[in-house]
C-alpha cells in the first residue's frame, strides 16, 4: 500500500539507490510511475506493505517501508531489487553501484566518483574530514534526516582518512 513519504514513521526502514549522474525530468517521471505502481501492490507473504519513495536531488531514490505494519521478507526485497535493476536497464542508468561515492564538492555541488578516486582525494588533501558525503548505509527515515548528509569524520568513510 503506497503512502506519501512524509507520512512514513521516523523508524520506517529505508533503502537508498544512488544514480551516478543527475536524473533528467523524464527519467524521474518514469521511475516515479514504476515505483508508485510497484509499491501500491508490494506484499510480503500476502500482506500489504506500507511503503513509499522519494527522489532527492534528482540523484537519490529512497524507498521507505513502515515495518510496523508488516516486515519485508527476502522475497519482497528481491522484488524491489529486480525492479531497480529493470529501471537501470530501461533507462540506461546505474543505481546499484556501491563502488561510487557521492559527496559535495567545494562549490556544494554533488559529485560521484569511484571509491578509489575518493580515497585518493582524501590522501592528497583535495577532500578532508569536513567534506560532506552521502552515507547511503542509513537504515531508517530518522537516520536519513540526521546522518545521511554528513561530514566524512562522522561517516563510515572516515576509515579512509589519512593517519596524521
Ends apart, CA distance between termini? 51 Å
CATH C-level class of the largest domain is: Alpha Beta
What is the CATH third-level topology name of the largest domain? Gyrase A, domain 2
| Structural class by helix and strand composition | alpha+beta
Mean pLDDT: 95
Uncertain spans: none
By oligomeric state, this entry counts as: single chain
Please indicate the percent range of residues in DSSP E strands (runs of 2 or more): 15-25%
Compute the number of strand runs.
Answer: 9
Major beta sheet, specifics? 3 strands, antiparallel
Overview of the structural elements:
The protein has 164 residues and is of the alpha+beta class. It folds into two domains: 5-91, Gyrase A, domain 2 (2-Layer Sandwich); 100-137 and 146-160, no CATH class. It has helices spanning 25-40, 74-91, 115-123, 141-147; strands spanning 13-18, 43-44, 47-48, 50-56, 60-66, 100-104, 110-114, 132-134, 149-151. A three-stranded antiparallel beta sheet has the order 1-5-4, with helices on one face. The protein has a two-stranded antiparallel sheet with strand order 2-3. A two-stranded antiparallel sheet has the order 6-7.
Topology:
Layout: E1 13-18, H1 25-40, E2 43-44, E3 47-48, E4 50-56, E5 60-66, H2 74-91, E6 100-104, E7 110-114, H3 115-123, E8 132-134, H4 141-147, E9 149-151
Antiparallel strand pairs: 1-5, 2-3, 4-5, 6-7, 8-9
Helix pairs in contact: 1-2
Q: What keywords describe this structure?
A:
alpha+beta; 30% helix; Gyrase A, domain 2; 164 residues
Give a quick rundown of the structure.
The protein has helices at about 25-40, 75-90, 115-125, 140-145, and strands at about 15-20, 45, 45-50, 50-55, 60-65, 100-105, 110-115, 130-135, 150. The protein is of the alpha+beta class.
Amino acid at each position: 500500500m503506497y503512502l506519501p513519504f512524509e507520512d512514513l514513521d521516523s523508524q520506517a526502514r529505508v533503502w537508498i539507490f544512488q544514480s551516478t549522474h543527475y536524473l533528467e525530468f523524464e527519467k524521474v517521471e518514469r521511475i516515479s510511475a514504476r515505483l508508485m505502481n510497484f509499491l501500491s501492490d508490494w506484499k510480503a507473504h500476502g500482506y500489504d506493505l506500507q511503503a513509499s519513495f522519494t527522489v532527492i536531488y534528482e540523484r537519490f531514490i529512497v524507498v521507505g517501508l513502515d515495518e510496523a505494519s508488516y516486515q519485508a521478507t527476502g522475497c519482497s526485497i528481491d522484488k524491489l531489487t529486480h525492479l531497480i535493476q529493470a529501471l537501470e536497464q530501461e533507462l540506461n542508468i546505474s543505481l546499484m553501484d556501491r563502488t561510487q561515492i557521492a559527496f559535495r564538492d567545494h562549490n556544494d555541488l554533488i559529485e560521484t566518483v569511484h571509491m578509489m578516486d575518493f580515497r585518493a582525494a582524501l590522501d592528497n588533501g583535495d577532500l578532508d574530514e569536513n567534506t560532506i558525503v552521502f552515507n547511503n548505509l542509513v537504515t531508517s527515515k530518522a537516520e536519513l534526516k540526521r546522518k545521511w548528509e554528513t561530514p566524512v569524520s562522522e561517516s563510515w568513510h572516515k576509515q579512509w582518512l589519512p593517519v596524521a
